[in-house]
Amino acid sequence: ETGVTQTPRHLVMGMTNKKSLKCEQHLGHNAMYWYKQSAKKPLELMFVYNFKEQTENNSVPSRFSPECPNSSHLFLHLHTLQPEDSALYLCASSQDNRDTYEQYFGPGTRLTVT
Amino acid sequence: AQSVAQPEDQVNVAEGNPLTVKCTYSVSGNPYLFWYVQYPNRGLQFLLKYITGDNLVKGSYGFEAEFNKSQTSFHLKKPSALVSDSALYFCAVRGSGGYNKLIFGAGTRLAVHP
Q1: Residues of B in contact with A42 (CB under 8 A)
Q2: Least confident of A24-28, A30-34, B49-53, B95-99
Q3: B75 in Cβ contact with B23 (< 8 Å)
């Protein structure tokens, strides 16, 4: 898992806090993704960035704000979250070309909202 | 619309026996199919993919998957299961659009008993 790293690995925050999740990929990829993984639910795609441009926002509430300053880094800024936002947040990256399609995932940030 | 179904929430198998984890898909056009594995408190790890070519695809850790176009299936298989194979397995299909968006199934928990 050194290809895609995520920090912090665990985060506990109150509903009024502001925090950020960080993702860094060391694979030279040009696309990055945020997913939410909740218990007993399919993986939910939240945001997609291609070449630093956001290309998809899957109706994610505005209390989640992504930022992609360059192709290697992706952030997820969190503010005024709700308890139901507690989940594992996964970052992934891929190389967007005709020959490779698989995404590579980081270890995730386990978020608990109290 | 593209979709993936994993009909079994859990699969139980004895160590040394063959295992199968089922996946069916629905896509328009040629399917690009993937299998991922997730161990506890870890991100998803890429196992194998089918893009084109032979219907039997070999991947990491001795896993293979068989693409069956007429049955729209892409079942994951291993000839001899190990206790260490116990994990959560996800099937995915590449979604529409010009980038590598993946649509994941709900996951199947594999339990290999000694």
Answers
A1: 104-107
A2: B95-99
A3: yes
Helix (H, G, I), strand (E, B) or coil at B83: helix
| Largest Cα–Cα separation, chain A | 45
> In the Cβ-directed half-sphere of A55, how many Cα atoms lie within 13 Å?
17
Produce one character per residue of A47-78: b if its CB has 16 or more CB atoms within 10 Å, e if not: bbbbebeeebeeebeeebebebeebbebbbeb
Helix (H) or strand (E) holding A34: strand A31-37
- Please compute the mean of the pLDDT values over residues B63-75 and round it to a whole number: 96
Alpha-carbon distances, residue A77 vs A20, A22, B88 (angstroms): 4, 9, 28
Nearest Cβ partner of B94 from A50, A101, A105? A101
Considering only CB atoms, which chain A residues are within 8 Å of B90? 43
Q: What average pLDDT does this structure show over B92-96?
A: 82
Amino acid at A47: F
First to last CA, chain B: 41
Q: CA A57: distance to chain centroid?
A: 12
State the nearest Cα–Cα gap between B14 and chain A, in angstroms.
24
Per-residue pLDDT for B98 more than 60? no
Q: Which two tokens stand for residue A62?
A: 């505005």
